[in-house]
Amino acid sequence: GEDVEQSLFLSVREGDSSVINCTYTDSSSTYLYWYKQEPGAGLQLLTYIFSNMDMKQDQRLTVLLNKKDKHLSLRIADTQTGDSAIYFCAERSRTALIFGKGTTLSVSS
Amino acid sequence: EAGVAQSPRYKIIEKRQSVAFWCNPISGHATLYWYQQILGQGPKLLIQFQNNGVVDDSQLPKDRFSAERLKGVDSTLKIQPAKLEDSAVYLCASSPIRDRPSNEQFFGPGTRLTVL
């Protein structure tokens, strides 16, 4: 079946880089996504990557995809306190998005 | 552009009571989704509409949950009767076209339901 796994917590210092990892199981997924959820708010799409790509960069965000290992990562450069949130990895499966449980990123100053 | 609107933001009910949530998607978005997000977990799709037709309701507990999207715009999700395990945040999302490659879904702020 389809499943998305993420580590639950990550703590970094302001200015450091953050790397959030994710593994997925559906090899037929065409798109993989990273969403951000701040307290009391809905999910916001940060970035996505097509399955035939290895890397995508968007300002401070870098997404790496290892399709052979079904491993996805999100790197946030120069992490700021405003980046503190829950980050969800998701894969597209037929009509639905399958989400992981989310990684809580805590940024200390 | 206004975002996805949901109401109420919070609801507390007792088990076996009924509750309804309302969602107004972004204007012009054909596809509407209802997700359930239990504390500590990622959102799980309950039902997906394309205009006013149901595309996927395979994970909707149909013995107690129902949803409709009359006229292909607003949508209502109902739970009757509620159970303790229904305590969760109910998120509504919309997207312009179901088969858009990026499938970007725009989420509302959610309704937090507590069942006592």
Key phrases:
heterodimer, A: 109 residues, mainly beta, 6-stranded mixed β-sheet, 5-stranded antiparallel β-sheet, 11 strands, 0% helix, 60% strand, globular, B: 116 residues, 7-stranded mixed β-sheet, 4-stranded antiparallel β-sheet
Spell out the helices and strands of chain B N to C: EEEEEEEEEEE
Biggest pleated-sheet summary of chain B: 7 strands, mixed
Give the integer mean of the pLDDT values of chain B. 92
Helix percent band of chain B? under 10%
* Shape assignment of chain B: globular
Q: Outline of chain A, from the CA principal axes?
A: globular
Percent helix of chain A: under 10%
For the largest interface, the chains and their residue counts are: A-B, 22 and 23 residues
- List how many beta strands of chain B DSSP finds: 11
Order of helices and strands of chain A: EEEEEEEEEEE
Low-confidence stretches of chain B: none
Category from helices, strands and their pairing of chain A? mainly beta
Please give the count of helices of chain B.
0
Biggest β-sheet description of chain A:
6 strands, mixed
Structure description:
The complex is a heterodimer of chains A (109) and B (116). Chain A is mostly beta strands and 109 residues long. Chain A is built from no helices and 11 strands. Chain A has strands at 4-6, 9-13, 18-24, 31-37, 43-50, 55-58, 61-66, 71-76, 85-93, 96-99, 103-108. In chain A, strands 2, 4, 5, 9, 10 and 11 form a 6-stranded mixed sheet that branches. A 5-stranded antiparallel sheet of chain A has the order 1-3-8-7-6, with no helix packed on it. The radius of gyration of chain A is 13 Å and the shape is globular. Chain B has 116 residues and is an all-beta fold. Chain B has strands at 5-7, 10-13, 19-24, 31-37, 44-50, 53-56, 65-68, 75-79, 88-95, 106-107, 111-115. In chain B, a hairpin with a 6-residue loop joins strand 4 (31-37) and strand 5 (44-50). The termini of chain B are far apart.
